[in-house]
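Hello,

I think I submitted the calcium ion job twice by accident. Can you confirm which output corresponds to this input? Input:
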Amino acid sequence: MTKYLLTAAIATVLAACNNTSDAASAAAQALPAAATPAAATADADKPFTATPAAEFNQPWAMTFLPDGRLLVSERQGALKVFDIASKKTGNVSGVPAVDYGGQGGFGDVVLHPQFASNGLVYVSYAEKGDGDTRGAAVARGKLTLDGNGGGALSAMKVIWRQSPKVTDRGHYGHRIAFGPDGKLWISSGERQKFDPAQDMKSNLGKIVRLNDDGSVPADNPFAEQGGVTAQIWSLGHRNPLGLAFNAQGQLWEHEMGPKGGDEINRIERGANYGYPIVSNGDHYDGKIIPDHDTRPEFNAPEASWNPVISPAGFVIYSGDLFPDWKGDGFIGGLSSQSLVRIEFDGDKAREAARYEMGARIREIEQGPDGAIWLLEDGTQGRLLKLTPAS
Ligand SMILES: [Ca+2]
Ligand SMILES: [Ca+2]
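Support: Only one job matched these inputs. Its output is below.
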């Protein structure tokens, strides 16, 4: 649980990157808005070239199909299939109705580990409840691709819901990952309601672990307590927006903290990560939250950020195209408009590099050839392919 003080290093990197950032924004503004930009961006100080491949309307998540095409979710409720070779985009019908607004709408999309044989796709989204309430939900269905570049989801079934549904439209979390154990892992945000993150009768502010059909594994840490408590793997989370397993099967998570409190955590069975009792940040209204070192009984982050990066999307790289980066983590930065590279050393993690991208980065995936793919946030969010700088 060693903590790394990143502030000074970040300030240095930011200062060094100001010119690059300005140049990147100018280049982005110069691109034609209506056409898919074709120009690649190669900066002398970046070890990669970023080539735009497409644009999406408020993209939130993506995942590669076995045939090399991409499924891309758009927050207002659309699911797209993008063919990288032809640059054609198709629609997938049969997606659930989403409660769009605030931070909510369509969320993550992932494939079942045996997708090639069972065709199962999992999606997360904000689901409307009674009155003025809503909550994250995860549904699964069978994807049938058609001959026209699109497809359809059928037999959709909701297999998990946040409980309880609450007012407002923030902190859904709802990232999904399959573990090497074949289990379904979901990050559940605390919906900006604070205390539910410590309430074991609620699954808000938790990392939950389920079987692939949504049932509860008998070996979960609180399984014998039943109800939503049985779903809980870890607690005390705020707005977790990244889940990734490394090659050794260890789960890492990042979450948006309060002011000055973004975190990356090594997720341990049954552990309490302390929010909202402790955080290395403080509430945005100025109210102080005691830091992690005042309450060692809570699991402290392996690294935290002040100023924040606003983390979104997470991969732990396992490809060959960037051999120096094998085993490193990549986190998208929203407010920091960056790609953050994490180096792990056993149980420890630290920010090793930050690449200014000139746009809010929402999602990251590793492609079949080892290229790194990014989705920008926003109504004209570009899909970018990163390949090694020549
Ligand atoms: Ca993804
Ligand atoms: Ca604090």
